[in-house]
Design a protein that fits this description.
By secondary structure, the protein is α/β, with parallel strands linked by helices. It has 2 domains: 149 residues, HAD superfamily/HAD-like (Rossmann fold), CATH 3.40.50; 101 residues, 2-Layer Sandwich (Hypothetical Protein, Haloacid Dehalogenase-like Hydrolase, Chain: A, domain 2), CATH 3.30.1240.10. Helices cover 27% and strands 21% of the residues. The protein is built from 8 helices and 13 strands. The strands form 2 sheets. The chain has an 8-stranded mixed sheet. A 5-stranded antiparallel sheet has the order 7-6-8-10-9, with helices on both faces. Helix 1 packs parallel to helix 8. It is globular, with a radius of gyration of 18 Å. It holds the Pfam family Hydrolase_3. GO terms for molecular function: magnesium ion binding; phosphatase activity. Keywords: Hydrolase.
Length: 263
């Protein structure tokens, strides 16, 4: 078949949230796809500093990170965009004023509140990142860093409406469900990341295969002609999914590749 480019979300797609590993079946399938001359890219909401070692063990052709704000191909950085420093400080101060739980995600590190927050999911993420040496150097309150995006948690004590209005014309909030939002730079998304790579290879969306499971995969599902939803996925993807494969733990990556004749 003609050369294709495959784009993979991480969590719940190539990396199991149950076993915390990339299944051997997925590794073998991706190696076979590469041997056929196709290209494979990670396309994730995570920033580059937090790509798990379990994922890096497979030599992807590149990493598209931070919802399209940091793009690499092999060892070359193709594009990067951080929030302007003063604007970033103002966003963090507004988030505190609105009583949100906040993680700032940058290229070099992720940044957490200096105090223990009331948001259990934020604290769970803090523990996960800390176990990997991330998010322990300096706190949000230091204001001495730049970052690419925010992940925020809200509850009944939060004024998220005021914070969303404050985002203005340069930022937008993606609803991740469960009272959590990804706050990203407007004009960037997993779809713009796909498009950038496809145009780099002078290929159109008919040669793009995207694999995902969550709401922040919606943009690339809308972009690509071949959108593959994992066996467990957010229902927001259903109108755009061309094929629903098995879960990652049940060899879903390999199953989808066989379905499309990629291997």
């Amino acid at each position: 078949m003609e050369r294709a480019i495959l784009f993979f979300d991480i969590d719940g797609t190539v990396l199991s949230e149950v076993t915390k590993e990339v299944p051997q079946s997925a590794i073998e399938a991706m190696e076979k796809v590469r041997a056929e001359g196709h290209l494979l890219f990670i396309n994730t909401g995570r920033t580059i500093c937090s790509i798990p070692t379990e994922v890096r063990k497979f030599q992807f052709d590149g990493y598209l990170c931070g919802c399209g704000t940091y793009l690499t191909e092999h060892d070359e950085v193709l594009l990067k965009s951080s929030i302007e420093k003063q604007r970033g400080i103002e966003l963090l101060r507004k988030a505190k004023e609105c009583n949100l739980g906040v993680i700032a995600e940058g290229q070099e590190d992720c940044y957490f509140p200096g105090h223990i927050s009331r948001f259990d999911r934020l604290e769970s993420t803090r523990r996960y990142f800390a176990s990997r040496g991330i998010g322990i150097e300096q706190s949000l309150e230091s204001e001495r860093f730049e970052y690419d995006k925010l992940f925020v948690y809200v509850d009944d004590k939060s004024d998220f409406d005021s914070f969303r209005e404050y985002l203005g014309d340069d930022m937008e909030a993606l609803d991740r469900g469960g009272k959590a939002y990804e706050v990203i730079q407007k004009g960037f998304s997993k779809a713009t990341a796909c498009q950038f790579i496809m145009e780099r290879y002078d290929m159109d969306a008919s040669h793009a295969y995207v694999f995902g499971d969550s709401s922040n995969d919606l943009a690339m599902f809308e972009y690509a002609e071949h959108a593959i939803a994992m066996g467990r996925h957010d229902s927001v993807l259903d109108p755009y999914a061309e094929f629903v494969t098995k879960t990652v733990e049940n060899d879903g990556i390999a199953y989808a590749m066989k379905h499309y004749g990629l291997i």
